[in-house]
Amino acid sequence: MDKPKESVWQRPYVNIFKHFKLEEWKKSTKEGDVTAVMDKTLKCTVYRIRGSIPAGNYIQLPKVSTQSLGLVGRYLYLLFKPIVSKYFVVHFDAVTEDSQVIRISFSNLFKEFKSTATWLQFPFVCGAVKGSVYNATAKSAKQDLVGLAPVGVKWTCLMMDLQYILSFYLNRHYSHLKSIKLCSNMFVKNIFTSELVFEPSVTVFKAKRAGLVLHDVSPMPREMAFLVPKGENWHDIYDYIRMVSCGRDNIRLWRVRSEALRSCPVNLGEYHCLEFTDVAFEEGHLADKDPADRTLFACSKSGHIIEIDYKNVVIKNARRLFPSQQKHSHRQETEGLNSGAGIAINSISVFAAFCATGSDDGYLRLWPLDFSTVFLEAEHEGGVSFVSIDPNGLKVLAVTTTGNLGYLDIPSRGYATLMRSHTNRILAFSVDGIRRHLVTVSEDCTIRVWDLDSMQQLYDFVSAEETPCAVTFHPIQQIFACGFSSGNVRIFNVGNSRLLAEQRQHRGQVIGLVFSPNGEYMYSAGSMGSLALYDATEEDYHVVRILGNVVARGSYSGPDALTVSSDSRYLAFVGPSEYIVTVMDARSLDEIMLIDVSILDLETTTLDTALKVCYPSAAISQLLVTTSSNKILWLNARTGRLIREVCNVHKTVSSSLAVSEDIRYLLTTGDKVIKIWDYHLKQDINFQVFIGHSETIHQATFTPDQLSVISVGDAIFVWDFLAAVRDQENNLPSIQPFALHKAEAPSIAEGSELFQNSGMPRQSVPVPSSSPPQLNLSTIERNEQDEFLSDAENKDVHNKRDGSITFRRNGDSFLQIHENVHCGEDVSSILRPTSCQEHQEELEEPVGDGDFSHNCTRPDSYKHFAAQFKTSSVSQGAVLPDGKEDLKLKVVIGYNGNGRGNMVWNPDTALFAYTCGCLVVIEDLHSGSQRHLTGHTEEISTLAVSHDAQDLASASGGQDKTGCCIFIWDVMGGCCKKVLSEHTTEVQAMAYSRDDRLLMSAGDYRDLTIALWNTRNYELLATTRVSDPVHDLAFDPTAFSEFACVGVGAVHFWLVEQTGNEVQLKVHRVSVPDEVGAGELTALCYNCDSVLYTATNTGKICAWDTQHNRCFMTWDADEGEIGIVQCRGYRLMSGSNTKKIRLWAVAAVQEMRLEGTGARPSSVLLEHEMILDGTVVSAVFDDIMDMGIVGTTAGTLWYINWAENTSIRLISGHRNKVNQVIFSPDESHFATCAEDGSLRVWVMHGTELVVQFHVLNQNCLCMAWSPTLNSRERADKQQIVAGYSDGTIRLFGVLKTEMELKIHPHPVAVSAITYSMDGEVIISGGKDGLMAVSSPRTGITVRVISDHKGSPITTIECTRKKYDDFGLEGCEMWLAVSSDRRVSVWAADWHKDQCELIDWLTFPAPIEPEECDTGSLPPSLAAFSPSHSGVVAYVGFGVKPEIILYSLERKQTIKKIALPHWATSLSLSPGGQFIAIGTNGRLLKLIQYPCGKFQDFTGHNDTVHFSRFTPSGKFFLSVAYNEVLVWEVQKLHSNLTNV
Length: 1539
Hints:
By secondary structure, this protein is mainly beta. The chain contains eleven helices and 118 strands.
């Protein structure tokens, strides 16, 4: 907040009500009962503010609290009168030079003066008129009568010296006045500020007549003066509120004369440059002398003592006091001011025979009044800032800058310290419940230990070079640990004040430090993300383990970033990001659980972050978290499940969180207040608020005995916690902690059992048993009371299921397996032959006893493919080119982020292929050129490539009941080798064996089949049905005949046994261990050391020993569902729906596979992490996992380089529907706009994305590129105008890459837009049929055309014409089309503001229209013929599908071209030889004009809803949903005649 520059206009004063025009209430505000009334005493209009609640009835200047008055005048004058028998309150907000806002308040509500760091409260005594009963009582009273305004209360002129008030009370320098608030009940005439001290009883006329102007007396300005009736005395009618003051360069004497306060400066002469610090009267506290007969003493920072004759206002004497070696020499000040360094005196107090001074050198000194010598002194640790002699002259009180308060007993010459305190903000504290000690740390670089009962300081430790920022007491021993800003952790023994140990394990400050409740371990966290575990049983506190990048970076979670459960088993904190809460094993720092708080609130679009975590008593197994959205989350400490939440806990973020030992009360801090909550939230009002702190509370908690609450920040507050006392008095039973398990401490095995049955990972290596118990997943999720049940009560044996698996071998008889599958049981020997007829019946008839139930519910996993919904269907009557094609597909823009595993890359051969809709795109990564494999008619779900990169397999679903197709492509030739058909619906995954002899394919959740193919001739070897959907499959690279697949709850290990032409499959089904807690296994990959990695929908990765088919470890690898895992050597990559890809070092996993090793899951290290733009759906990496390509649901393919930690977009596309495509006039660029509000600009050559504009929460429906004129200046100002769903139009500068103008001409969505041919205006149409003509320079809408009102505008197009064509002036004409089959054509001369209708066309609808929804009808579209002036081409819903050519000159239809399908898009080539239309049958039809011959082009996966030729006609772009296809137009070899 910068200090406003003092302006001339503020001199000599500012009439605030007049300057801000209070009567207009534009720059000020009023609330409640505020009225202008006529005052009989002043004979003028004043404002009356009244009401029972001051906060609801007030006048405030300025109007908005974020603004500032900016008034720099030192003195503020308020002319007001309290209302009789009422209270009033006045607030002034002043700003200091260091931008701190200080509130200065005065009121007759206040009983005494109060001061905080940001608020000064002054009590106000109301004065009454002369002769009133109240006035007589007040004069005889021994103390001021503060309270309701009395009868006969006076009008008052209140003068406040804002500079002096801030300097004296807060030691701050005044800058300017920010705001004023006058609250009921009062009358107010005016307020003004000035640098001058005005005398209210002296008018300008009186001052001139008496010659007072020459005597430094400033009369009250006329507009501020109170009216004084003739013969009356001003002071009898009014009050003027009254002091000696001193400061830099001045001493001013104030006197009350004739009931008026007057001031007079002391002529300091050669001492005018001194900084005076304090003043005191001789015998200042005795009442038997007239003040006028006393000597006034003033002290200064330079050591000068000035004695002033108060009566005559002159300096009597001046002395300068020097340090102790010169204190015995009496020095009358005769030397220069700079001769030697004097004592910097801060305070002075004078008694009858001596005086006391306090100075910066730490000494309290007693002097005789002639200052000849020091007869008594006391040295302090810091400078003495204040001294005061008691009325008896026996004791001297002293305050020091180090926070000490004490007194010197003069007779005994003894010194006693009354109190010590920190001198800066207190950052953290800890309580020793056994000895009732309190340790605090502060920004003053001290650590202090206090006795909680006496509140006396016992010890202090000083660290001059680093700030202590976290502290914790040992739960048993007399030891505390302290963390510092440097990252050091030091352990102190309080008993002998000895430093026990010092550790330096952190970079950055320590933000968390805590002992385990059993005292065995200590933990510390650093602001750079590190976490350390120490052995607290050894005196050297050696480090047991240290982890990096696990705690959220930053210091916001300090000083209590860590929390340990009361049973010392679990450690929780915020990290590794601010969105995650991590729970670890407190004994080993093994990760147990990650909780993502950002996804717990599904109703908000903003990501929530965690701030504080706290474990209540372990009896209820809960974990509390506060968040940045001011919530408290109650989480199940075992599962992480959200139990309940409370919103709007504080107005600002909560800075502290604590729970009482009996789990009855919850404490939070924020907004400088403490809130005590009912922990279980069972009351109508669940919290109470306690105020006292003036600044942010850094930490607060209950004491262990629950009798007090301690909070620290601006001071140490110890609160009596009366709830516990009241409960004891009322004999209320408190909640007793109860154990979930046995009373004795659990062993490691017991701990493992706990984790197994609660859904958490074990701490030992999990080994599947032959028939492990499983949780009954069919039961309803446990409520909160169920959390108190024992684990044994929650166990349920999983119901066993029977099922069947079918195999096929070379078209011979089928084999069927009846399965009673148990974990780890080999079922390959249970076989019986069945006939082919039985197999067919099984597929067609309902499943009977002993068969797998066919559940068609889509799995709850993003990994499982689901085709995009489409309303279009493939046309069966396509007319493909019989000779040379007129269009050649050049580039496909976009990647299908809806596919799964639909991208392949071979680093050795540089093969790079991906899918877009129903196309396979093979792209050269060096040149960017593309080849396209066409043949699919539906969306391709997945790809697979052989290891020699010779064969490529692509799979797509079938339409209606035609079944799925797998195309086998020859990569080099680009031709289809074979089409495989076995699956009835979509293919979920495919894989080649390591020797490329076998291809395996798995159907989706509706198909439930796995097919095995011989790649020599791609004949089917075997097929099998599975009980649950398969998400992923892979061949074992070390055993060519073994593969695995994953799905719901289990891994299937398969063995292919082939003897001659016979193929046998054996399966080993292994259930996932219960502790993994995952219902879906979503991905898998092998490495070359007999290890299989599987991923889950809960973010875990499991490692399996493929030699024994057992799971031997698991770790939490992500916060969401992992859909991709890839392993190369000892590095593993994972990708998930949290948009994250992570690289893991898994070298230690092989060691863990060997039984008996001491390796732990924590040995898996996270090496790198990147966040992409969407859920990860495909990924391929090189053999050393250094670089790879990753695909996301956002339609982006990323090049990833782990070594350089970079990610580069390779392929970009739209995720949502593309509405329109436009071209720059020079054809160098084109732009696309989409439903998600994005507008993207691409380079035409190479189709590289260069610029993107994105408007959130809007649909960009249409756009136009500004025309280029001959002027170079205009070419540099290329613009794109776009229309949005909210009715706005935005203009974007292409070269500036920024929005230049936004206008709002439409109340509904803008559906069509274009520039005029000269770029002078923009013509836009809305979905309500209204059209607006707007200026792109000013944004003003100059014309609104309503001829099409009621029907959405679909097209607006402009073209040139001869000036006088059609009998209308203008060189331009334009047309508009609405969805009711109407076309209007206009002639325009925008320079003359002329726009006239040329023709109005209405095309007929069928006599008997088809019964269909209006929204499903084909659109009405029209365009000018580029080659024939005055000809309009039209398509739309009519009697039959056709193109109608209409002549504006002849006023008639000149040609009709019949179409086999309704047109969904229309575009005419610039040369006029082609008309292109799109259809709902996913076809693009190119019609030769005028002969009418046409060719059909496939390749789109949905309705072709937009198409357009480039300005030169060389290229053509077509759009189907989010696919953009770029075609190259071939030259015609035949001569075409014109119409």
